[in-house]
Amino acid sequence: GAVVSQHPSWVICKSGTSVKIECRSLDFQATTMFWYRQFPKQSLMLMATSNEGSKATYEQGVEKDKFLINHASLTLSTLTVTSAHPEDSSFYICSATLRLASNQPQHFGDGTRLSIL
Amino acid sequence: DQQVKQNSPSLSVQEGRISILNCDYTNSMFDYFLWYKKYPAEGPTFLISISSIKDKNEDGRFTVFLNKSAKHLSLHIVPSQPGDSAVYFCAASVNTGANSKLTFGKGITLSVRP
Fold it and tell me: In sequence order, what DSSP letters do the residues of A58-114 get, joined into one string?
């Protein structure tokens, strides 16, 4: 069964609105969560690494003021796409790793399909 | 700059035969490699991994081979089953820590014909 839950799975909204996506680890504590974006027929591109209780680390080229990440607890991280525009339309997916465990693969949520009109 | 490359976008094999999915990488600092499988409308699920200190890792029908000198790895599925039809992503990281960043390839769509 899924160990990472992502919500919502699909969002359609108007240009200029903000959208919040939640990522929850089920049955385990995730010190670190990752946020990815995937465009059609492309690879999953890491956007940021989210550590509980500290600021997220963003990858080069990702606007931190555009994509707000909050990791308030060991089981929840949120990604807010602020003032979304059509070019932000994409598939957003999170993953989590087991706390204090090395050699553990990342477990992924089922992703959020974001469509900005 | 694509550091992990899956040059074949798709592969079709007959049920019961072997599926060989290839992956190349350019970053010599990568030392941990993973394969993920993804069905439509679902997130990737972990399949198998291999550390750079090994050249082979086997788990049931799935075997991953690593050729460090060629910066190449492959996933073998034998025998292939229709339920194996999915997109397979190759991923790599610089270390194996819990917060290691993964770099993904674009994926290969595998179709297993009954």
Answer: EPTT--TTTEEEEEEETTEEEEEETT--GGG-EEEEEEEE-TT-SS---EE---EEE
CB distance A97–B99 less than 8 Å?
Answer: yes
**DSSP bridge partners of B34:** B49, B91
φ, ψ for residue A86, nearest 5 deg: -50, -35
The number of C-alpha atoms within 13 Å of B51 and in the hemisphere containing its C-beta is 8
For B32-76, write each residue's pLDDT tens digit: 999 999 998 888 999 999 999 999 999 999 999 999 999 999 999
Task: List the single residue in B with minimal CA-CA distance to A44.
Answer: B104
Higher pLDDT, B51 or A30: B51
Please identify among residues 19-78 of chain B the ones whose CB lies closer than 8 Å to any CB of chain A: 34, 36, 41-46, 49
Q: Give yes or no for A17 touching B (CB within 8 A).
A: no
For residue B72, what are its two tokens? 């190449």
pLDDT the model gives residue B101: 85
CA distances from B112 to A16, B14, B47, B83 (A): 43, 6, 17, 8
Residues of chain B contacting A44 with CB distance shorter than 8 Å? 44, 89, 102, 104
B101 contact residues in A (CB cutoff 8 A): 34, 46, 49
Q: How far is CA A72 from the centre of its chain?
A: 14
